[in-house]
Amino acid sequence: MNFSLMLISLIILVIAFIPFALMFERKRPRAREVVIIAVMSSIAVVANLICGYTIPLHGGTAVVIITGIALGPQAGFLTGALARFVCNFFMGQGIWTPWEMAAWGLLGVIAGAFFYKPVLIGKFEDITQIRREQTRYGLRIVVIPVAVILFSELLGYLEYILFRNGDEPFWGWRLYVFGFVGIITSVIIMKSKIKPDYITMTVFTFVVVFIVYGGIMNLAAMFMNSSVSPSGADISWGALKLLYISGVPYDALHALGASVCVFLFGDSLIQKLERVRIKYGLYKGKRKGSDPIKIL
Predict the structure, then answer these.
(1) How far, in Å, CA of 51 to CA of 58, rounded?
(2) Global pTM value
């Protein structure tokens, strides 16, 4: 039974890859586009390996999100999935690999769908003024989604007070479920993409890595644990709740490490990608809404 459940989960993950691969293929990408994705995947692998064995940050996750913002959802997904697959040749392949590929790829998709394409900054631009504009815009725009997510978590806490089971703590599945509801609600309220800057990208990275990546991998852990169990007893709502409770500290550190990386080098890497897009004829002009705020 465990083998069947794992086989079904792997089939579902493979099916999830197909739409993005087909969309990318339908665009008839040129070789230079494929090369850029391969290069960004390599950078994500190197960043993840360096951080994994040295400093407690998560540069690979940050690179995947930055790629999605700069190159779009399809490129973000392919970069995340390919980078995680290659990275696990060094860190260990296993039944967790498809889940990690899907989770990293989804981060790239969400980043590409959430932000407008950035604008290239010229050498003679007033950097100080641009920073001020970014700060004002970033602080103003993140108020709405952060408030909505916090309100959604408050509703989750009220649900916990009213319907909790025994000594079950609040810090578990409710953080992820009600946080995801808050993300969806904030997207509906805002009705449009936002402009990327060092504030919006940092806050975005922390939220989606904690809720989306953490939510997927905690679910994956239940299936992976069941594969080594002699029975299917590990697959239950109780087991899943325990995994979400124990996963909160790691997911919070993962989200914090990735957001710090985005804050430190997100702007500069996006600017370099924009210059590559222009140099190799991949630049298709500015998107609507990208004029007022520029990226350093």
Answers:
(1) 6
(2) 0.86
